[in-house]
Design brief:
The structure holds two protein chains of two kinds. By secondary structure, chain A is an alpha+beta fold. Chain A has three domains: 102 residues, Serine Threonine Protein Phosphatase 5, Tetratricopeptide repeat (Alpha Horseshoe), CATH 1.25.40.10; 74 residues; 60 residues, SH3 type barrels (Roll). Helices cover 62% and strands 14% of the residues of chain A. A five-stranded antiparallel sheet of chain A has the order 6-5-4-1-7. In chain A, strands 2-3 form a two-stranded antiparallel ribbon. Chain A is globular, with a radius of gyration of 24 Å. Helices cover 20% and strands 38% of the residues of chain B. The chains are: A alpha+beta, B alpha+beta. At the A-B interface, helix 1, helix 3, helix 5, helix 7 and helix 8 of A face helix 1 of B.
């Protein structure tokens, strides 16, 4: 009983602390917005950075990206736009601003075209976000149980059969939805892409300083992370080329 | 052996006349040598020529040289196209004494009270055989095609009018051919590519020898301008111009196939200064000295009637690089892309002339309109400053189109919404859209409760049902066990009688036990309990017929046993059957 009380008080305290942090973040966010509106991007950026540790998601990263862009720090702005896209993969404003920022960097990489099916699948997978899928998960769990009860107590063959198969189908969908929620969460939080921050980076053939330079990247280019070996990341760029980059040259999205 | 150049720069120049100096009408004194440099062992000729004059020639000091022959005096007199000219020439054949650079001093002549002087000549004396292609063509290699990059008898020069300029300032570049050959046939000419410059060519002309000789170190050369251009540097810094490479066939005659020679010119550098800071807003790269004017053909017009606006930029500078100025026109004016009209000439003075832009403007609606002041800025390299010229503003008064009164519904050309500036979209201002860090619902205990809870509840419910069923079954077992105990309790006296073997007492006890039991169970006092009442009550309580029959059988048997011993069934069996009967009844009756 004592333990339970301790647990609950801990939960409530952390929730309070969190909501206090969130209030602070919201204050800083509005101050940043005011400064941005007046064109004082430096000030706006500082407020947004104050707010950043206590919040996440589309709005803060999008605004940070804008402030960095206005101050001419394109790699930072690309990093934050990419982060914003993690939370809202199909947000048009983010995509538009990101495309403008990408036009201003040195590297123009031929992007391998995605298949239509793949685009549809990605949109479908990330549209609801992990929370949307989670809610669907709960709805399916409840309906699966209700249908089972229908089978258990139902009178009449048809009703019972409907209850039985309905319950099984709902359960299968529940598992699918759970998988989707996991993949959407991975998309959001897994550290699998990064932005190059050094002006000019030699991408190596091996995770070793003296190895052959495979190609050169410049600040602002997005790379996908394939694996990590000590202090080196194996990366792939949009054109499909692969190589190794030292960890200090990158920042993870 | 005639080479055909890519640009068909083939010019055949045949000298028909012997190299006689053809000065003008004024008296002149000129000194020249036929070779420079000369080899120590070689001889060379110094000529001092006085043209169109008479007087004493005072020869210079020639102590540094050994005079092999001379002075020899020759004179000539000619009339060409009614003009007469005369010349007196003193020739010395000289041999250097040692290597080094020696100066032949000035020669003087007193002509009609005026003292004419020559310029001093520096003669370089070198070791070994000299380059011995004299004007007469001393070295004739038959059919040979020797290639020399330095040739004292044929030279090309690249000359610049200025070498220190502002970015965009014009420079005249001249490619000059200097020759001492009589007979020269020009082949391929490789002009420099002029990276970093924007160039305008002079109008093409035939290359001709200039009338006057060019003296280089006292040696006379014939001179021809191969090409001239005006160039505008496009970037700051020091830009080196590549040398001109020219190949030519010389000394070709009827008997001689001639000699192929390739010469490279000099490679001058241009120092380009960047334009200073403080560029005016309307500056778009014009460098030079310009006038700016703008005129409209009318200030009053009807709607839908065309108005012409002519903007003219006149002057010297990079006119060809001036784009149409970016003017702001009123919204309701339809403005067509301007027509550009160039009157530009390129000559030794550089690029000058005018460029004009003619805008066709159609006002669509009546009203008073104004085109604000037009501005044109340029950098003047002479003063080193930016200058801004203005014209206008222009005011227009547009009256209604005759007959056609534009109404709200009148068709008008729709303005295409064009994206003119590229910028990112605005921020999100709604702070309510800020979630807390990691405020994700998925994966939280609440999510797990929601997803797994229903199943847990279901399992719990099913388990409860199962347990209840089991419990229900158990109640019947307990009842049975209770009934058994009850029967044993009731039949305790009968059991004792059975063990003592008293059959009479045994049946009495059985009878008592059953009656007592039924009386308790049915709630009827023993006195009122008759056999028929028992049957009636039992049947009312849903006891089945077999059991009722068993009850009557036990009662009847006990009644009979009072009078006669029971033989058809043993006492033990009867006891057991009665016990079973009571158990049975206990289960049926509540």
């Amino acid at each position: 009983m004592k333990k339970l009380i301790l647990f609950f008080s801990a939960v409530i305290l952390s929730a309070m602390a969190m909501s206090q942090g969130l209030d602070y973040a919201r204050d800083q966010f509005s101050l940043g917005n005011e400064a941005y509106m007046e064109g004082d991007y430096e000030k706006a950026l500082n407020h947004y950075l104050e707010a950043e540790p206590n919040t996440e998601g589309l709005a803060i990263n999008y605004n940070l990206g804008n402030a960095y862009f206005k101050l001419g720090e394109i790699p930072e702005s690309i990093l934050h736009y990419e982060r914003a896209l993690r939370f809202a993969p199909s947000n048009e404003d983010v995509q538009y601003n990101l495309s403008i920022a990408n036009d201003m960097i040195v590297d123009k990489i031929d992007i391998l075209p995605k298949s239509k099916l793949r685009i549809w699948w990605d949109t479908f997978r990330y549209r609801l976000g992990p929370d949307g899928w989670a809610q669907l998960c709960i709805a399916l769990a409840i309906s699966s149980v209700l249908l089972f009860l229908l089978y258990y107590f139902g009178r009449g063959k048809g009703v019972r059969r409907f209850g039985f198969f309905g319950s099984i189908i709902a359960f299968i969908f529940l598992i699918l939805t759970y998988t989707l929620a996991v993949s959407a969460e991975n998309y959001r939080y897994a550290e699998k892409s990064a932005i190059v921050f050094t002006d000019k980076v030699d991408v190596k053939s091996e995770p070793r300083g003296g190895s052959v330079n495979v190609f050169v990247l410049h600040a602002g280019t997005k790379v996908e992370i394939l694996s990590r070996e000590g202090e080196w990341y194996e990366v792939e760029i949009a054109s499909g080329a692969q190589g190794w980059i030292y960890k200090d040259e990158l920042r993870l999205v | 052996m005639k080479k055909t150049g890519r640009h068909s720069w083939i010019i055949m120049i045949v000298m028909l006349l012997s190299p006689i100096f053809s000065w003008g009408q004024d008296a002149a004194l000129v000194a020249s040598v036929d070779k420079n440099p000369v080899s120590v062992n070689d001889v060379f000729t110094l000529k001092i020529t006085l043209t169109n004059g008479k007087g004493n020639i005072e020869t210079p000091d020639l102590n540094d040289f050994q005079v092999v022959f001379g002075p020899s005096r020759s004179s000539s007199y000619r009339i060409v196209n009614g003009r007469q000219s005369s010349s007196i020439t003193f020739s010395y054949t000289l041999r250097p004494k040692r290597t080094g650079t020696f100066e032949i001093g000035v020669a003087k002549a007193n002509v009609d009270g005026k003292v004419l002087t020559t310029s001093p000549i520096k003669v370089e004396v070198v070791k070994g055989a000299s380059t011995s292609a004299s004007s007469g063509g001393a070295s004739r290699s038959n059919g040979g095609s020797s290639t020399q990059s330095t040739n004292q008898n044929l030279m090309v020069r690249t000359q610049l009018s200025k070498s220190n300029v502002y970015k965009g300032e014009q420079i005249v570049i001249s490619y000059i051919l200097l020759s001492r050959y009589n007979n020269i046939d020009l082949g391929e000419m490789d002009f420099p590519t002029l990276n970093g410059f924007w160039s305008e060519n002079f109008p093409e002309e035939q290359t001709t020898w200039e009338p006057n000789y060019e003296m280089i170190n006292g040696v006379p050369y014939r001179k021809a301008v191969l090409r001239q251009q005006v160039i505008f540097p496009q970037r700051a810094g020091t830009i080196k111009i590549e040398p001109l490479v020219l190949s030519a066939n010389v000394n070709r005659s009827f008997f001689n196939p001639g000699e192929n020679i390739t010469v490279r010119g000099n490679s001058p550098s241009v120092t380009v200064k960047a334009l200073p800071d403080g560029t005016p807003a309307s500056f778009e790269g014009a460098v030079g000295s310009f006038d700016f004017s703008a005129t409209v053909d009318k200030n009053k017009a009807k709607a839908n009637e065309a108005i012409n606006l002519k903007v003219k930029i006149t002057g010297a500078g990079n006119l060809g690089l001036i784009d149409e100025p970016d003017f702001k026109f009123p919204e309701d004016f339809e403005v067509y892309d301007p027509e550009t009209d160039d009157r530009i000439s390129v000559n030794k003075g550089g690029v000058r002339g005018s460029r004009s832009f003619q805008y066709l403007i159609i006002p669509r609606y009546p009203g008073e309109y104004k085109i604000p002041e037009l501005q044109f800025s340029f950098f003047n390299p002479k003063t080193g400053r930016y200058q801004t010229a203005t014209a206008g503003p222009f005011e227009f008064s547009i009256s209604n189109d005759q007959g056609k009164v534009p109404t709200a519904g009148a068709p008008r050309a729709k303005n295409l919404v064009e994206q003119s500036g590229l910028d990112i979209r605005y921020i999100i201002t709604d702070e309510e859209r800020l979630p807390a860090t990691r405020s994700q619902f998925f994966g939280t205990p609440l999510f797990w409760a929601g997803a797994a809870g229903p199943f847990a509840l279901l399992l719990f419910f099913l388990a409860y049902r199962r347990r209840k069923e089991a419990l229900d079954k158990d109640v019947r077992g307990r009842k049975k066990r209770g009934a058994n105990r009850m029967a044993r309790k009731r039949l305790k006296a009968a059991e004792a009688a059975l063990k003592s073997g008293d059959s009479q007492v045994f049946y009495q006890e059985i009878f008592k036990a059953l009656y007592g039991y039924l009386s308790d169970k049915l709630g009827i006092p023993t006195g009122e309990l008759t056999r028929s009442k028992i049957v009636y009550e039992l049947e009312r309580n849903d006891v089945n017929e077999a059991t009722v029959n068993d009850v009557t059988y036990v009662i009847d048997t006990c009644e009979m046993a009072r009078f006669a011993p029971v033989t058809e069934v043993s006492d033990e069996v009867f006891y057991k059957r009665t016990a079973e009967l009571i158990e049975n009844l206990e289960e049926r009756l509540k």
